[in-house]
Specification:
Elements (H helix, E strand, L loop, with lengths): L1 H16 L8 E3 L5 E3 H17 L4 E3 L4 H9 L4 E9 L1 H6 L5 E8 L2 E9 L4 E6 L4 E3 L2 E2 L13 E4 L6 H9 L5 E3 L4 H10 L4 E7 L1 H13 L3 E3 L14 E6 L2 H15 L2
Parallel strand pairs: 3-4, 10-11, 10-12
Antiparallel strand pairs: 1-2, 4-5, 5-6, 6-7, 7-8, 8-9, 12-14, 13-14
C-alpha cells in the first residue's frame, strides 16, 4: 500500500501541481487562508486515487468543515487525511518549500504517512512500527544535538502566545531558528534531523497527520506545548512540541514551561 500511495502522490504532483506552479489563480477562503486552483485540482485527483488503493473516507483540507467532521465520524475508524498542497503561500510565490501530505489514520492515529516535496525531489514516508524513510533510505541525516543551545529549531511564531513568542525571539535557547512555511515539511525536517526541535501553536489534522508519524518512527518525540500528551489533544487543533530525542524534548519542554510562566 505504501508504494501505491507514493506513486499516486507523485502522479498528482506531476500532473496537477507542478504545471500550475506560478501559473495558478489564487483566492481567499472564508478563514482568510490562501487557496489556488492547484490545491483544488490536487485534492480531487488524490481523493480519486486513494479510493482506488483502499476505499476509506478521505478528509481533505479543501473540504468544508461540516463535511470533514462528518467523514471523521463515519465508517469503521479508518480514513485517509490529506493536505493536497501544504505551503500554498510558498507555492503561489515561487518558493520551493511546499508538499503533498497523505496519512492513513486508524482510530485517530496515523498508520501510514507520506510527505512529498515535488520541486525538492524528496519523499518522506513511514508505516507504524516500520521506521521512516527519505527517498527509500533511512531518514535520519545527522546526529541530533545533545544540548538545546546547539539545536537548530523550527519556530512558527504566528500561533504562539505573545509571552512565549517574545521570549523565543529575544532570548532563544537554541543555536539557530528556521521557519519554511509548510507544517508538514517542518515535521519531516524534524524527523530527518534537519531540525533538532520544533514548535507550532496550533495545527489542523492534515498539518500533522503524516508528519507526526514520521517524527515518531524516526525516534523523535512529540508533546503539547503545555506538556500534555500530544495525542490527548483535540484532533482538529493540536499544539506541537517535537524533538529528535526524548532527552532533547525534556530540555525543550522545560524551557518552554519556564518561558510561559508569569
Amino acid at each position: 500500500m505504501l508504494q501505491a500511495v507514493i506513486e499516486a502522490i507523485d502522479a498528482v504532483a506531476r500532473d496537477e501541481i507542478v504545471p500550475r506552479h506560478l501559473n495558478s489563480r489564487r483566492e481567499r477562503k472564508a478563514d482568510g487562508s490562501l487557496v489556488t486552483e492547484a490545491d483544488r485540482a490536487a485534492s480531487t485527483a488524490l481523493i480519486a486515487a486513494l479510493a482506488r488503493i483502499a476505499p476509506h473516507p478521505v478528509v481533505s483540507e479543501e473540504m468544508a468543515q461540516e463535511e470533514q467532521r462528518a467523514l471523521w465520524r463515519s465508517g469503521d475508524g479508518t480514513l485517509w487525511c490529506i493536505d493536497p498542497l501544504d505551503g500554498t503561500s510558498n507555492f503561489a510565490s515561487g518558493i520551493t518549500q511546499f508538499a503533498v501530505s497523505v496519512a492513513l489514520l486508524r482510530d485517530g492515529r496515523p498508520a501510514l504517512g507520506v510527505i512529498h516535496a515535488p520541486l525538492l525531489g524528496e519523499t518522506f514516508s513511514a508505516c507504524a512500527g516500520a521506521g521512516a524513510r527519505l527517498n527509500g533510505a533511512p531518514i535520519r541525516l545527522r546526529q541530533p544535538a545533545a544540548r538545546l543551545r546547539d539545536a537548530i529549531a523550527g519556530i512558527d511564531f504566528k500561533r504562539l502566545d505573545a509571552r512565549l513568542a517574545t521570549r523565543l525571539a529575544t532570548t532563544p535557547p537554541y543555536h539557530s531558528q528556521r521557519n519554511f512555511g509548510s507544517s508538514a515539511l517542518e515535521l519531516a525536517y524534524t524527523a530527518s534531523g534537519r531540525y533538532d526541535v520544533y514548535i507550532h501553536g496550533a495545527q489542523k489534522l492534515w498539518d500533522y497527520a503524516a508528519g507526526a508519524l514520521l517524527v515518531e518512527e524516526s525516534g523523535g518525540v512529540l508533546a503539547a506545548i503545555d506538556g500534555a500528551d500530544f495525542w490527548s489533544q483535540d484532533p482538529w487543533q493540536r499544539s506541537v512540541l517535537a524533538a529528535s530525542t526524548p532527552a532533547l524534548l525534556d530540555l525543550w519542554r522545560s524551557w518552554i514551561a519556564a518561558a510561559r510562566s508569569p
